[in-house]
Write a structure and sequence with these properties.
With 89 residues, the protein is mostly helical. It is built from four helices and no strands. It has one domain.
């Protein structure tokens, strides 16, 4: 695989992430607006967002959702904050 192939694949991945970000943003806003508290659902979204962070996307959305999560699941939110910090290193 050439460097051009790798670059092309990375560009496609970034385009795919940009295409999905509006959906992720809506999910985050829906959780907050509807005051959802299902840890499995919230953590599923946080996990997805963590996957985007290493590519430079989703940090703001992650922080927004995790701040909300901290209002009722502080220990879990602290763990997710550590995951984010590690992903940003």
């Amino acid at each position: 695989m050439s460097i051009d192939d790798i670059t092309s694949q990375i560009e496609k991945l970034h385009a795919d992430i940009r295409a999905v970000m509006p959906i992720a943003q809506k999910q985050v806003q829906d959780v907050i607006d509807h005051k959802l508290t299902d840890p499995k659902y919230i953590e599923w979204i946080l996990d997805d967002l963590l996957g985007f962070v290493s590519h430079g996307y989703g940090v703001e959305e992650f922080r927004k959702l995790n701040s909300y999560y901290a209002t009722f699941a502080a220990e879990n939110a602290e763990a997710y904050q550590r995951f984010l910090d590690e992903a940003l290193e």
